[in-house]
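Field guide to reading this record: the first block holds the primary sequence, the second block holds the structure written as C-alpha cells, and the final block holds curator observations. Each block starts with its own label. This record concerns Pyruvate dehydrogenase E1 component beta subunit, catalogued under organism Halovenus aranensis.

BLOCK 1 — SEQUENCE
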Amino acid sequence: MSQELSDTESTQSLTLVQAVRDGLYTEMGNDDSVVVMGEDVGENGGVFRATQDLVDEFGDDRVIDTPLSEAGIAGTAVGMAAYGMRPVAEFQFLGFIYPAYDQIVSHAARLRTRSNGRFSCSAVFRAPYGGGIHAPEHHSESSEAFFVHQPGLKVAIPSTPYDTKGMLIQAIRDPDPVIFLEPKLIYRAFRDDVPETDYTVPLGEAKVRREGSDVSVFTWGAMTPATMDAAEELAEEEGIDAEVVDLRSLSPLDEETIKESFKKTGRGVVVQEAPKSGGVASEVTATIQEDILLYQEAPINRVTGFDVPFPLYALEEYYLPEPARIKDGIRETVEF
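BLOCK 2 — STRUCTURE
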C-alpha cells in the first residue's frame, strides 16, 4: 500500500504510528503556535508512543501533560484555538472521547458560526480507534459516524503511513476543527516510504487503491488493508475484478470519486468496522441511490460490524469484517 514518490525524494520507512509522530514533529517545527496536549503525551510519549520524545525537542510548554479529564482537554483546546493557537489534543482511545463530546460539538464545531466569523477553531482532536488488539471495554469503538453527523467538523481517517503524515499536517493547518482518527489495528502492521520533508494530503479526497471493473468497494481505516486482501484474493482465485476506494475523509465526503467509480462498475459494496445501523456506509449507499441510481445493476451490500456493543476478545475476530466475510459480500453483489 505504498505511495508513488519522486526518485530524488528523501524518504524514511515508517509505520502508521511513527508517521503520526513525524507529522506532529514536522508541523511543530514549522509553526510555534502548534501544541500537543493530552494524558501522558509528554514524558511517557502517549499510550501508543505517538508523541515519543516530542517533549525533549519542544519542551513541556508545547507538549502538555493534562489531568485525566477529556472534557477539560477538549475545552482547553477550544479556548487555545479561539485565540490563535493550533492545539492537537490527544484522546487515548476513541471510546474515552465521549465526556469531551459536548465541548467538541457544542463549541468547537460551532465557534465560527456562533461568532459570525470572528473566531475560528483550528484544533485537531486525535484518537486511536477501532478493534482488533484484544483491548478491554471502551477501547475498541468505531463511532466515527457521531462526528460525521455534526456540521462544522471534518473527519479524517488515514490507512497508510504516507497519508497519515500528510493528512495530519493538513488537519493542523485547517482553519476549522478536525477529528483525526487513527486505526490502531494497523498502527504497526506495515511500513511505507514517507518523505522526510513537509507535505500535505488534502482532506475530502478519496483514493482509488485498486482499479477494477466488476464492482466498487468503498472503505476506510483498518478495513482498507482487509478489503485490499479480499480484492486480490478474488481476482486471483475467481477472476472478480474489484475496485477498492479508500474514502480517507468521511466529512467532507468525496462524492465525486464515489460516483465515478460506481458509474464504471454498476455494483457497490461498503465495508465498515462500525455497527451497521446509521453508519457512514448508509450515507455512501444513499449518495449512490439519490444521484446515480440508473447506473445500478445490483443492490448495494454493506459488510459491517454488528449492532451490538463491541465484544471482548473471544468474539472480537468474529465481529470485525475480515477478508473472508468481505469476499462473501463482494461475491454476492457480483453474482446478483
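BLOCK 3 — OBSERVATIONS
The first strand starts at residue 11 and ends at 14.
The chain has a mean pLDDT of 96.
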